[in-house]
Amino acid sequence: MVKKTLLALVVLCGLAAAPRPAIAGCTTDLADCYTAAAKIDSFWYRWAAGLDCELDYTECVRVKVVGV
Amino acid sequence: MPRWAGVITLAVALGACRAESAGQAPALLTVAPLFGPVIGAEVIGGRVGGDVVTLLAGGIDLVRIDVPGSRASRVHLALPPGESCWSLARLSDGSLWTLKGRRTLARVEEDGGIRELLPLAASHFGLFAAGDRLVFQEATFTAPRPALLSGAIDGTARTRWSEITTRPFEGRARASAAALNMVSCGAARAAERLCWFPDEAAVFLVGDDGATRRIELSGLDVVPPETLLTSDNPRRPVRDAYIEDDRSLWILSSGVPAAGQDDQPGGWILARYGKGGAPQGRARLERPARIILRAGAGRVVLLLSNGEVGEVKAW
């Protein structure tokens, strides 16, 4: 029960921190990525997966805000 | 007679003042196509060069645009399927570098071959060059920090390059803040480098010694960061920038198309500023452009959104 609650909190925190709204595909991918990361049991692997989600998001947005 | 002499003196004096300043910007800039198209709709992730400009197109091709020769060529990077690059940097020895993925520095040949691959200790957002040093933008999510670090090719002994500092964005998600802190750098015929953040109507001029001047660019449209991050075609105050020999700045800004024209991606506004940032006029392009290829000798050469190379008359 505690584990499930923590997982739900991680997902909710991730989505709350997500840029709202963002370039549609990038944000959707980020939300999906956070959801998948939240399901990882190990705290450190979950944290690392969340970081990868953020890197994926910035790469996705980079094309629009820096690319020409 | 003295009265006429006074009028003539005044006219001569005004004429002299006029000759030293930039001319009047026209309301609409007519674009004269030169050659092309040289590139498709693929994203340009990096650029280097002077008279011959090399672009990283779609992360997988190098497009060379020889402006004086009015020709262009394209080579495919020798990358494994599914892999791509971002950023281009040319060192003073002529070597060309890019980021393959997030954590690999790649030296590429003019024919698209990969000559060297060097793993990096951290993920990176961007890569530039300053003389014989590479300038890295590391993928960091904490601010304020130095935005750019220079160092040896192997990534060791990095030191701060310039005084450009990432900005904290209170209440904003870390990933969004990181995206807003990504730096672009433009081309220059002068010694200084020119860099900017995507959401600001300002540029940083960075000298060889790292001394940095921030120049506010008045008259450019700025959109809120939310809009910048949410739009498929974000309106950026500075899409591209170029320093001329005389150190005047040319800025390509998104702006908006004239009434009745399609809202195509690219910059619709070309603005000129003096070396101290004094505005010297802005004009609407009759066709949108993606980057400034070169400026000087009374003209500005642009890569247009339709992939052609064209020029406008400078003022």
Describe the structure.
The complex is a heterodimer of chains A (68) and B (315). Chain A is mostly helical and 68 residues long. Chain A has one domain (2-65). Chain A contains three helices and no strands. In chain A, helix 2 runs antiparallel to helix 3 (43-65). Chain B is mainly β and 315 residues long. Chain B has one domain (26-313): Neuraminidase (6 Propeller), CATH 2.120.10. Helix content of chain B is 10%, strand content 43%. Chain B is built from three helices and 24 strands. Chain B has helices at residues 2-20, 174-180, 225-230; strands spanning 28-29, 32-35, 44-49, 52-57, 61-66, 71-76, 85-90, 96-100, 104-108, 114-119, 124-130, 133-138, 149-151, 159-160, 184-188, 193-196, 202-206, 212-216, 240-243, 249-253, 267-273, 279-296, 299-304, 309-313. In chain B, strands 1, 2, 15, 16, 17, 18, 19, 20, 21, 22, 23 and 24 form a twelve-stranded mixed beta sheet that branches. Chain B has a four-stranded antiparallel beta sheet with strand order 3-4-5-6, with no helix packed on it. Chains A and B meet through helix 3 of A and helix 2 and helix 3 of B.
Domain unit count of chain B: 1
Q: Assign the structural class of chain A, choosing from mainly alpha, mainly beta, alpha/beta, alpha+beta, or little secondary structure.
A: mainly alpha
The number of domains of chain A is 1
Indicate the CATH topology of chain B.
Neuraminidase
Rounded to an integer in angstroms, the radius of gyration calculated over CA atoms of chain A is 13 Å
- Gyration radius of chain B, rounded: 21 Å
**CATH superfamily descriptor of chain B:** TolB, C-terminal domain
Q: Which two protein chains have the largest interface (Cβ within 8 Å of the partner's Cβ), and how many residues from each?
A: A-B, 23 and 36 residues
Strand content of chain B: 35-45%
Q: Topology as H/E string of chain A?
A: HHH
| Global outline of chain A | elongated
Number of helices of chain B: 3
Characterize the quaternary organization of these chains: heterodimer
Number of helices of chain A: 3
Mean pLDDT of chain A: 75
Shape of chain B: globular
Biggest β-sheet strands, sense, barrel of chain B: 12 strands, mixed
